[in-house]
């Protein structure tokens, strides 16, 4: 299975357009590399490609990736569809850029499909798409030889979802297995908490792409004086006794990579103490455009 990290930043990208924190200032000065909003492409045969989430930066990401270039026909594309982990704006707005793409298929959990009903109606007027329940029992098979199962990992609804059920499976992780090689990718860019189910998923994984949004629980307040830290935004911090880095110490088998980095996260700086600590444990932080095989 080929994997391309099209984007690795959280919502707003890096630097964020309306943020003057120290990290964003360094990125604007060219001292740190910029990053686009989180999105991944996967393929089991190098011909049929599937997007994991659809960021607002999807056009830039697609045009920067030769494997995803259109052809051979004038309107042919190797992109077959999208697997959504949630309904957050920075994960679904890219669907509007893909409008008109013929015969695309979008997988998402039922609450996500329901809240996207107005957007779905608009997109289907450009070209009919197939919209499918990602939580279907037994999982599903993607063109290219990939078998997928979705697993609820959170119940945080997006801000724009009126009357959202508090206990619904709004956030999911994906387990993607290559039938030809047995390689398994676990994709979980949004984690509100660590669960035994997640431990079970990582026990079978060859590689894990995980939520690295915030390094510390008080990061937003420290960096930009915001009262809304990771708890309000539904993201488990990397550091701390109950952080994801502590949990990952139980899973030394798979390759482990942090993605969805917020613009306040010191992991964005390769020279930071935070990056050194994470790297010392064997967990990676990769740049946009990174490609690897699972």
TrEMBL record:
Keyword check for Heme: no
Family the UniProt entry places it in: Belongs to the PqqB family.
Record keywords, A-Z: PQQ biosynthesis, Transport
Signal peptide: none
Gene from which this protein is expressed: pqqB
Keyword Nucleotide-binding in record: no
Protein name, per record: Coenzyme PQQ synthesis protein B
HAMAP family: PQQ_syn_PqqB
Coiled-coil parts of chain: none
């Amino acid at each position: 299975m080929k994997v391309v990290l099209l984007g690795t930043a959280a919502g707003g990208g890096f630097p964020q357009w309306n943020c003057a924190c120290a990290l964003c200032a360094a990125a604007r000065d060219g001292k740190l590399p910029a990053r686009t909003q989180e999105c991944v492409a996967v393929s089991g045969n190098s011909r049929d490609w599937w997007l994991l989430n659809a960021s607002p930066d999807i056009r830039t990401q697609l045009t920067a990736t030769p494997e995803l270039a259109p052809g051979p026909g004038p309107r042919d594309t190797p992109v077959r569809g999208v697997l959504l982990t949630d309904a957050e704006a920075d994960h679904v707005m890219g669907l509007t850029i893909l409008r008109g793409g013929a015969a695309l298929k979008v997988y998402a959990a039922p609450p996500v499909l329901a809240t996207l009903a107005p957007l779905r109606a608009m997109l289907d007027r450009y070209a009919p798409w197939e919209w499918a329940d990602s939580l279907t029992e037994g999982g599903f098979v993607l063109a290219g030889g990939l078998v997928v199962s979705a697993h609820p990992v959170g119940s945080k609804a997006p801000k724009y979802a009126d009357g959202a059920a508090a206990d619904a499976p709004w956030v999911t992780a994906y387990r993607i297995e290559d039938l030809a090689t047995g390689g398994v990718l676990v994709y979980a860019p949004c984690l509100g908490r660590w669960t035994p189910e997640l431990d079970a998923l990582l026990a079978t994984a060859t590689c894990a792409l995980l939520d690295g949004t915030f390094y510390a629980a008080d990061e937003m307040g420290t960096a930009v004086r915001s009262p809304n830290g990771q708890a309000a935004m539904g993201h488990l911090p990397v550091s701390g006794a109950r952080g994801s880095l502590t949990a990952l110490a139980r899973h030394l088998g798979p390759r482990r990579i942090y993605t969805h980095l917020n613009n306040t996260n010191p992991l964005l700086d390769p020279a930071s103490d935070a990056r050194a600590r994470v790297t010392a444990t064997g967990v990676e932080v990769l740049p946009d455009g990174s490609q690897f095989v699972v």
